[in-house]
Specification:
The protein has 288 residues and is mainly alpha-helical. The protein contains 16 helices and no strands.
């Protein structure tokens, strides 16, 4: 029963995927809030620049027309934080504004797990790691063992340094949910890298999605190098540079949006260098 419910109704499940695409094919006469949420989901699934622009415009109009709706504020915050943390060019949302929007979301709906999870994520990428973990813990208490939130909360706990509960929650979610948030595999990859398990790291990197931004080839390249297969990492470095041409100049800043432990950051940067990526010295001083 849990698996069937997740397959149909989960945020990345059948209904969301179908309706998100339909919202683009048949634009409504006005920007309903529901369509704004679906466009947020569409960007989350594709990370396409056009999808971001559509979601941003729709969510900005949604918070103007219905400022009392917590979910609109939270999704606007998450959209901005994801876009910012990936260093995507174009019209964006300052991270301070994303934090303010996320806090407004939880203020309007303090018992909404979704809003709490989004606030934790925004705080994480903004380097407020302790606060992010506190919000993730609060979300876990509110959610219990809901299959809808195990992977997201596990992801956040792992990236804030809870190396026991975080991966355990993600693995449970993957067992139950046919449509887990595949970004949670990024946390399993980081944990495997921390434990010096290159085979498990490479397996997690292979499950990570979406493949449309630089983290996918980055994780695979690092896993190959740490597994003694640096000669096979060149293809992944080429993919990384195709997806993110300015990565060498911004590598340190981009990596540290999600990896908060200096030893792991150094290990990642060292592996990328061994794979043939020339990380410039200025990248350690780069800021968005």
């Amino acid at each position: 029963v849990q698996t069937t419910v997740a397959m149909v109704a989960e945020e990345h499940g059948i209904l969301s995927s179908h309706l998100g695409e339909e919202s683009r094919q048949r634009p409504p006469a006005r920007r309903e809030g529901y369509v704004a949420i679906l466009r947020h989901h569409h960007f989350d699934a594709t990370h396409e620049p056009q999808a971001f622009a559509e979601a941003l415009a729709a969510l900005r109009m949604a918070v103007e027309s219905q400022p009392e709706c917590a979910l609109f504020w939270s999704y606007l915050a998450r959209l901005g934080a994801v876009h910012w943390s990936l260093g995507v060019p174009g019209d964006s949302i300052p991270i301070e504004d994303s934090i303010a929007a996320a806090r407004r979301g939880t203020g309007l709906a303090p018992q909404d797990v979704r809003c709490r999870v989004i606030l934790a994520y925004v705080l994480l990428v903004a380097d407020q790691t302790d606060q992010a973990r506190a919000e993730a813990d609060a979300a876990l208490q509110q959610a219990g063992m809901s299959i809808f939130w195990l992977d997201s909360i596990g992801y956040l706990l792992t990236l804030t340094g809870d190396w026991e509960r975080g991966p355990e929650l993600i693995r449970k979610a993957v067992r139950i949910n046919p449509f887990p948030r595949r970004s949670s595999y990024g946390a399993l990859w980081l944990d495997a890298l921390r434990r010096d398990d290159p085979a498990e790291a490479l397996a997690a990197a292979g499950e990570y999605a979406p493949e449309v931004h630089f983290w996918s080839p980055l994780m695979e390249a690092v896993s190959l190098v740490t597994g003694g297969r640096a000669d096979q990492a060149a293809t992944q470095i080429a993919r990384l540079l195709q997806l993110k041409p300015d990565f060498p100049e911004r590598a340190h800043w981009l990596i540290t949006r999600h990896v908060k432990f200096p030893e792991l950051v150094q290990r990642i940067e060292r592996a990328l260098s061994e794979a043939g990526l020339n990380i410039t010295a200025s990248s350690t001083r780069c800021r968005k």
